Amino acid sequence: MGFFDRLGNIWKGFLSLWVSNIETRNPEAVYESAIDERVKKHKELKKAVSGIVYLRNKLSKELEDKEKQLREVMQQLPVALEEGEDEVALVLITKKDELTGEIEDLSVELSKVSDQAEEAKRGLISFQGEIEKLKREKEKMIAKKANAEARISIQESLDGLSTDADIKQLDNVRQHIDKLQAEADIGSEIQGDSLDAKLAKIKEKAANASAKSQLEQMKKQMAARKSAAVEGAVKKTM
Predict the structure, then answer these.
(1) 3-state DSSP call for residue 185?
(2) How many CA atoms, within 13 angstroms, populate the side-chain half-sphere of residue 56?
(3) What is the CA radius of gyration of the chain?
């Protein structure tokens, strides 16, 4: 190892000791820096999660529109058949098949995106919990440090040293406590979003069930009309 390499290592050692000394003397700044960094990452993660939620809502709206179109086609199809409009009926049947395929694809994609959204939101809530945990740790450690410093200062006063340091340490403890009490809690928006997502799923399932029920009823009605028509034709021939 050359002279300059050894000199560089010595400088790095001094720099490391200097930084470590600063961190030891000001642990509150270290905690605040760590918390600020996590809050920043939390905002970035929240923005990413909002993108997934937006996509989920967009797919849900598209699926709702396609299902509405399918219901309209299924209402028009019996009319075309009864009127003898075969060409119109063929167009409606083709449209029905297209919409059915699109609905199936959207349903699959929506299910995947919804799962991703829920997983991402759980991760966001967990990360938020880690921030709160670090804040509580900061409060505990800073209070522990302040208490130790106050005890040392009192001991020094009892040993006949100047009481100025004691008063200064007590003032610092008061300032730290006041500052900690002024911190605001993070809101419960994620929980609200989660409840909205569950409500949206319930509405979606209810809409699907209603559409299926209407479809089955229309089929039964058409079958009944055809059966009545056949019976009428048989009676006429008799």
Answers:
(1) coil
(2) 25
(3) 35
Q: What is the pLDDT of residue 185?
A: 46
Quote the pLDDT of residue 56: 92
Of 103, 118, 102, the residue nearest 56 (C-alpha): 118
Dihedral angle of Cα 7, 8, 10, 13, to the nearest 10 degrees:
170
Residues of the chain with pLDDT under 70: 1-25, 157-167, 178-200, 232-238
Give the span between the Cα atoms of 201 and 114, in whole angstroms: 9
Give the number of other CB atoms < 10 A from CB of residue 137: 13
For the packed helices 3-25 and 27-83, what is the interaxial angle rounded to 10 degrees? 80
Q: Apex CA 77: angle with CA 73 and CA 82, to 5°?
A: 160
Is there a contact between 67 and 211 (Cβ–Cβ < 8 Å)? yes
pLDDT at 102: 93
Q: Where are the alpha helices (DSSP H) in the chain?
A: 3-25, 27-83, 86-158, 164-181, 189-237
CA-to-CA separations, 60 to 93, 140, 147, 168, 207, in angstroms, rounded: 24, 46, 56, 61, 12
Please tell me the predicted confidence (pLDDT) of residue 54. 92
Predicted confidence at residue 71, as pLDDT, reads 93
Can you give the pLDDT at residue 3?
46
Q: How many residues does the chain have?
A: 238
User: Which residues lie below 8 Å from residue 197, measured CB to CB, with a gap of 6+?
Assistant: 53, 56, 114, 117, 118, 121
